[in-house]
Amino acid sequence: MTDLLTTPAERADDGRPAVPTFSVISGQQVQQALKGRESELVALVEATYRLHGAGESVNPPSYFLRFPDRPSSRIIALPASVGGSVAVDGLKWISSFPDNVRSGLPRASAVLILNDPRTGYPFACLESSIISATRTAASAALAADRLSRGRTRPTRVGFFGTGLIARYIHTFLAGTGWEFDAIGVHDLSADSAEGFRGYLRQSGAAGQVTVHDSAEDLIRASDLVVFATVAGTPHVTDPAWFGHNPLVLHVSLRDLAPEVLLDAANYVDDVDHCLKADTSPHLVEQLTGDRGFLNGTLYDVLLGRAAPPTDRPVIFSPFGLGVLDLAVGKYVYDEVSRAGSLRLIDDFFHDLRRYG
């Protein structure tokens, strides 16, 4: 993990705050800063979860901007603040427009604003679809490792949904030492499934790659199942498909019916965040009237306060915390700054004198 660099609100020689600077960091720069550092980033995400669990963060509810004329689309604001060695405030503003895929554009796009915790001034704007995918994948890889301890380590992985997030999760699993005898793929789009199989071949993934025609076949053939879809309501309803007790990374949050979760051990990243907005865990709470179906958080697992069982499916449903975006974004900013590659926007802040 990188050490904390000073943010741009340095003080001048006379002790007064210097004029704040503002930089823009492109997606190419973000990717260069993160590429090949999967183990380091998983460690960063774990450290951030520990800060959050210890109360050294502020992570208010996300705000969903929805559109009556475009019900499948949304833009989400994730404000957050994280302390410790990260020490940054900020906001992720991420859109999900599924219809983009038809025209060849990625579904999601995002920016991340970093604010100096001493002055409140924003000091950087980063392209954040890569940061968002990275923190999601690092969180999934961390959960896969921690929730499989004490169980037979999975050797057959299945990806339900084959977009950017699935690709990043596979990259992070491979980059942190996971090896699979078999890789299963399923997507409602045959072209997307074949495209993901092509990516796996190009990445040098070991093990047999199989495109499954049905969700049931994929799940039954996998002991690690990754859900990375754009589903808005549950579409996997039969607990019997999980009778072999797989580990499930329920990243897209709305794939599984309440019956599936009630038949499993359930872990989340943050209880209050995850049980809202009609996620699958939220639907279980509405159905049962309580949260007793939850076995703990990933923080509980990290501290050894919760041990996943071996005789039931284990499901991890992460809402995705803004503090993770900030930690990864600050990491990127520090790396780009170290390389001397910050693109400063001259005179971004103007009229800084109180009385003109």
Which terms summarize this structure?
alpha/beta; ornithine cyclodeaminase, domain 1; Rossmann fold; 7-stranded mixed sheet; 11 helices; 21% strand
Would you write up a description of this structure?
With 356 residues, the protein is an alpha/beta fold. It folds into two domains: 22-131 and 322-345, 2-Layer Sandwich (ornithine cyclodeaminase, domain 1); 133-317, Rossmann fold (3-Layer(aba) Sandwich). The chain has eleven helices and 15 strands. It has helices spanning 27-34, 38-53, 129-148, 164-175, 190-202, 215-220, 258-262, 271-274, 280-288, 298-302, 322-338; strands at 23-25, 57-58, 63-66, 74-82, 88-96, 108-115, 122-127, 156-160, 182-186, 208-211, 224-227, 247-250, 265-268, 294-297, 314-317. The strands form two sheets. Strands 10-9-8-11-12-15-13-14 form an eight-stranded parallel β-sheet. Strands 1, 2, 3, 4, 5, 6 and 7 form a seven-stranded mixed β-sheet that branches. Helix 2 (38-53) crosses helix 11. The N and C termini lie far apart (43 Å). Residues 1-6 have low confidence and may be disordered. GO terms for molecular function: oxidoreductase activity, acting on the CH-NH2 group of donors, NAD or NADP as acceptor. Pfam families: OCD_Mu_crystall. One of its GO terms (cellular component) is cytoplasm.
